[in-house]
Amino acid sequence: MSHEYQRMTLSRPPTRGEVLSDRWFRWSTFGFGVAVIGLLIAILLEIGSQALPAMREFGLGFLADREWDPNKNDFGILPQIWGTLYSSVLALLVASVFGLAVAIVISQNFLPRWLEQVLKNVIELLAAIPSVVYGLWGIFVVIPALRSLLAWFGVPPSEVSSSMLPAALVLAIMVLPTITAVARDAIVSVPVKLKEAAYGLGATRWECILGVVLPTAATGIFGAIVLAFGRALGETMALAMLIGNSNVLSLDLLSPGNTLAALLANSIPEAGGMQLSALMYAAVVLLFITLAVNIVGSLILMRANRNLLGGHA
């Protein structure tokens, strides 16, 4: 019995099958990682090859031109770049406030545990709603609600239609789950000893949250906002249905606008020749903007995790 006990408890060298399975797992995961990178490069090469004629024809002036007229062979995407950035920033301003508030509520014992889980799951389910459903909801619910609300401020209902305001509000709801989920993870990762030390010094709950928890999790929260920004930049159908699809440079929230993704969705079915190449050029610009934002967000999250783990992550 003693010999059998030692065989069960003492460490042993891995079997040949375990060694082979470990090697297979390592090489397969490495292969999948390389395949993802290869897929990204293939997408860039394919889009870039189709965009090359427009790049040669218009150069960097394509980014500063305001006209998009296929009949005159005149293409520029400055209004679309402005609309993409403007709508995304407006959505982030709204979503960051509400997302951070919800993250605090569902992570700092304000609610019973079961209710926290319910709210957490409901918010995460918002990310599963199709974009076109958000667009329809914006048309039939958000725009009529804005007409009723702004009528109190003297704005005629006829002036409230598809524009930057309803597009940004719907986009804020769409990126809310990203901000809430990542910000909650950053807040929960704050060491309990820091909060206990703050309470030991006489801090109230809100003093602890505002003075200890949020500053410690600030890098992760900022990373959540950056990742949501990348998500907002690439949104297509909801904005194409709500923003008005007009190539206008304006700060007016009730003015229609356009985005790069909406331009692609609306123009690609009938495009050909130089217009198709110009659309691929716009796709390259959108891709690089989105990739840059997501890379920055990922680097910020990596730094946050490394700081929370004492520099050993």
Structural notes for this entry:
- The chain is mainly α and 313 residues long.
- Helix content is 72%, strand content 1%.
- The chain is built from twelve helices and two strands, in the order H-H-E-E-H-H-H-H-H-H-H-H-H-H.
- A two-stranded antiparallel ribbon has the order 1-2.
- A hairpin with a 4-residue loop joins strand 1 and strand 2.
- The radius of gyration is 25 Å and the shape is globular.
- The two termini are 44 Å apart.
- The mean pLDDT is 85.
Average pLDDT taken over every residue: 85
What's the number of helices?
12
Rg over alpha carbons:
25 Å
Largest sheet: 2 strands, antiparallel
Query: What does the overall shape look like?
Result: globular
| Helix-strand string | HHEEHHHHHHHHHH
Overall strand count? 2
Unreliable parts: none
Strand order of the largest sheet: 1-2
How much of the polypeptide forms β-strand, as a percent range? under 5%
The rounded distance between the terminal residues' Cα atoms is 44 Å
Fraction of residues in H or I helices: over 70%
Structural class designation: mainly alpha
